Amino acid sequence: MAKARQFSSMLVFFWLNALFAGLGLAADDGESILHTEISRQNSQSLLWGPYRPNLYFGLRPRIPKSLMTGLMWGKVETYSDFQNSIRYTCEQNEGMKGYGWEEYDPRRGGIQTIHDIENNIDLTTSFVKVPGGAHGGNWAARIKGVLNEDALSAQRTMVVFYVTQEGEDSELRASPPDDEYGYESDVRLTGRSETLGNYKLVITKGKGVQPQSDHDLSTIRGPGQTVVQSLNYPEEHIWQAKPILFRQLKEGVDWLVENKYDAVDPPPPWQVYQLANRPGTGNVHIVQKVFEGDFEFEVIFSSESAGKELTSDDITREIKGASESFADRFSSVFPLKAPFNAEKYKKFGRSMFSNLIGGIGYFYGHSVVDRSYAPEYDEENEGFWEEAAEARGRNQQALEGPYELFTSIPSRPFFPRGFLWDEGFHLLPIADWDMDLTLEVVKSWFNLMDEDGWIGREQILGTEARSKVPAEFQTQFPHYANPPTLFFIIDVFVDKLRKTNGTLPAGREHLSQDEFLATASLDNPEVGLQHLRRLYPLLQRQFDWFRKTQAGDVKSYDREAYSTKEAYRWRGRTVTHCLTSGLDDYPRPQPPHPGELHVDLLSWVGVMAKSLANVAGALGHAEDADGYAKVLTAVERNLDDLHWSDKDGCYCDATVDEFEENALVCHKGYISLFPFLTGLLRPDSPRLGRLLRLMGDEEELWSPHGLRSLSKRDELYGTKENYWRNPVWININYMAIVQLYNVATQEGPHKETARDLYSRLRKNIVDTVYKSWEETGFAWEQYSPETGKGQRTQHFTGWTSLVVKIMAMEDLESKAGHVRDEL
């Protein structure tokens, strides 16, 4: 089977082009068909996955109204602990020592470990896919539980595999049981849907001891077999697995009470919570197992269109092959550089990256949007934030959609949904691994764009996603922007395309199907250019929307600037927050004023202009490229004219004082660095030296654990919510490290200073994230600049995973040492 996965990507390329030539098609037509064929293969390769990342282990395809599964478990040693011990959705504080993917490739699968210390068990969930047929091929999961050293040797663990099938024309039926009590052998579910065709889902008997009971209840409920309850629920409720399970369990407990099974002669707890066996047809199937001690079983999905069903030996072989493939590819894609090339850093890196890419999910449902376009939302008057709050209180929102989104999430327990400004950072490592997967995510986001160019900054699609978000944060507003980090990925893609010349790089002549598809849009540049052609008008539309809806006022306040157009203000500001900027509580001018100008937003517009100039150039649109280059020049000039403070030696937000005159408000920190962080300062810029001094000053931004978000000298340092007023954030530190590297590797007056800061900051960030991961088992949302401890959201494997790219960056300290030795 492993050999069957291998084929020559070069042969496929030539075969398709020969086919097109034989059909008498023009080159453009042929290349378009090639694009279509690669897209089809990508859709099949990426159809199935653990795309329910809010669950500890939840599988589904990238199809609305589809088959979905989820794993639940919990110990059943007492009558009272089961409700608190059951695990299903990822939660912040559930007694976990750590959990997540140790290795994962979305095209093949991987291995996840879950260290549930409160349930005294370590779980391993392995998942593999085998391509074939018209419906994404076959897949299998192996679920293994091993009691830890604190468990009783005979601890009973209940495991539930929860299966649902949506869709009016679908069907899912459980096979008849071995006897009335349940299944001594495998459980077979047979299903059919319009999108998946005919399929089977087998939950094997597996390995492990079934608990026995001589209680009278055993004449009614079997002594430990697998049981199935097949149910029908309204589709809008079937995602609520735990409430449905508890409802069914309560039904069984109530029956026991009614039939006078009481405390005088109680059944054992595991038997009290054993479901009655009622298999049949339904859109919900609860497959319940109880084990005494360690256990292992498999879940095998077989598509009728894929042919041969997987066996246990096949699964073992595929798990081994996927593991070996992942290890080889990780070393190749992310060759860790000194001082991070020890084995412990490789293990750390594999875990961080696997949890990032294993956190990709598919979401489908309606979004809550306020399209009232209330005049208060124009934010033109002083006190605008109060007027806007009053308008929001009118509850003019409505459901829109349904929409679908394929996205990498920031955190499985706390932020299991799509965030626009996070996504660009998430995709930077993923683009190194699998460019075509990255493009699938990018296209999914741009498919959400409305006709004006707006994309909601937070995608809370469907009732399941909304259940994790307070009502006051669910509504999206079409005048709210968010940092456009997806343009980072467009730049990465254009840069990779430019480095190809239409031929495969050496060593890539014979690749697996997965490796071929991961870079198909790069190895076949015309396919990549077609992606750009389709994205280009969407990128332009979003750029135009930004400049229109977030425009700032230069003329009304006699501001002196190179351009009267290139000045911007985030909408959605309040006295305490600017959520739309992504930097939430970072200090801004007080009170808010309609004449404010925000230096970070102007920098982001520069990022977009620079990226669009690159895309236009790659597509041969010289006039467009020239126009965007002029906008970029205006942005760069206005950053100095409107936002530079000679007095403070940094960039600052601008506001209007009591005399209606321009005034700079400087809170030194991440905001002050934004023109540098976004790559808009040249290595010989006269401003750069002062910014580097600010970064390296231990009384300002420098700490042993990374750059602080706000200067220690600022009066608001560490105050109130303290979200962006002190902590170290990895995404911003990554931006700093990249730009420091760029300055350190080019000739200029600040080369040596940048090299020193780069080397020390790179080491500090990696050490901080690694040590916290080693101590707690988790990556964290942010880190303390004083102690280095992770804080806020745990299992934050979104942009904190950028540490993998940081470890793979050049070790300039060692290089400088070698040069000194040679001299």
TrEMBL record:
User: Gene3D superfamilies in the record, alphabetically?
Assistant: 1.50.10.10, Glycosyl hydrolase family 63, N-terminal domain
Q: Does the keyword Transmembrane apply?
A: yes
Chief location bin:
endoplasmic reticulum
Could you tell me the membrane topology recorded for this protein? Single-pass type II membrane protein
Glycosyl hydrolase family 63 C-terminal domain residues = 311-809
List the GO terms this entry assigns under cellular component, sorted alphabetically: endoplasmic reticulum membrane
Please list every transmembrane segment annotated in the UniProt record, as residue ranges. Answer: none
Name the catalysed reactions: N(4)-(alpha-D-Glc-(1->2)-alpha-D-Glc-(1->3)-alpha-D-Glc-(1->3)-alpha-D-Man-(1->2)-alpha-D-Man-(1->2)-alpha-D-Man-(1->3)-[alpha-D-Man-(1->2)-alpha-D-Man-(1->3)-[alpha-D-Man-(1->2)-alpha-D-Man-(1->6)]-alpha-D-Man-(1->6)]-beta-D-Man-(1->4)-beta-D-GlcNAc-(1->4)-beta-D-GlcNAc)-L-asparaginyl-[protein] + H2O = N(4)-(alpha-D-Glc-(1->3)-alpha-D-Glc-(1->3)-alpha-D-Man-(1->2)-alpha-D-Man-(1->2)-alpha-D-Man-(1->3)-[alpha-D-Man-(1->2)-alpha-D-Man-(1->3)-[alpha-D-Man-(1->2)-alpha-D-Man-(1->6)]-alpha-D-Man-(1->6)]-beta-D-Man-(1->4)-beta-D-GlcNAc-(1->4)-beta-D-GlcNAc)-L-asparaginyl-[protein] + beta-D-glucose
The residue range of the signal peptide is 1-26
Principal EC category:
hydrolase
What the entry lists under SUPFAM superfamilies is as follows: Six-hairpin glycosidases
Pfam families attached to this UniProt entry: Glyco_hydro_63 (PF03200), Glyco_hydro_63N (PF16923)
According to the entry, every stretch annotated as the Glycosyl hydrolase family 63 N-terminal domain falls at: 45-273
Q: Which UniProt keywords apply?
A: Endoplasmic reticulum, Glycoprotein, Glycosidase, Hydrolase, Membrane, Signal, Signal-anchor, Transmembrane, Transmembrane helix
Annotated GO biological processes are: oligosaccharide metabolic process; protein N-linked glycosylation
Query: What EC numbers are recorded for this enzyme?
Result: 3.2.1.106
- Function of the protein: Cleaves the distal alpha 1,2-linked glucose residue from the Glc(3)Man(9)GlcNAc(2) oligosaccharide precursor.
Membership in a protein family: Belongs to the glycosyl hydrolase 63 family.
Q: What is this protein called?
A: Mannosyl-oligosaccharide glucosidase
